[in-house]
Amino acid sequence: MNYDLAISRGVRLNPNIQYVVNPDNLPRPKAFRQSNDILVFGAWLSVDFAALLGMPAQK
């Protein structure tokens, strides 16, 4: 699924949630124990400066 929220004209916020099951420890080869499952939250902010300035959209 893909969700985004139009904050204002030309500005969109896209939240991101990931659940990683049994992550790999390759970057840490000397780790004493295996990592647990991970729940990650993030966000992506997209800004269209042309739309903010009122310029016409290119096709």
Automatic annotation (TrEMBL):
<comment type="similarity">
    <text>Belongs to the OprB family.</text>
</comment>
<dbReference type="InterPro" id="IPR007049">
    <property type="entry name" value="Carb-sel_porin_OprB"/>
</dbReference>
<feature type="transmembrane region" description="Helical">
    <location>
        <begin position="38"/>
        <end position="57"/>
    </location>
</feature>
<dbReference type="Pfam" id="PF04966">
    <property type="entry name" value="OprB"/>
</dbReference>
<dbReference type="InterPro" id="IPR038673">
    <property type="entry name" value="OprB_sf"/>
</dbReference>
<keyword id="KW-1133">Transmembrane helix</keyword>
<dbReference type="GO" id="GO:0008643">
    <property type="term" value="P:carbohydrate transport"/>
</dbReference>
<keyword id="KW-0472">Membrane</keyword>
<protein>
    <submittedName>
        <fullName>Uncharacterized protein</fullName>
    </submittedName>
</protein>
<keyword id="KW-0812">Transmembrane</keyword>
<dbReference type="GO" id="GO:0016020">
    <property type="term" value="C:membrane"/>
</dbReference>
<dbReference type="GO" id="GO:0015288">
    <property type="term" value="F:porin activity"/>
</dbReference>
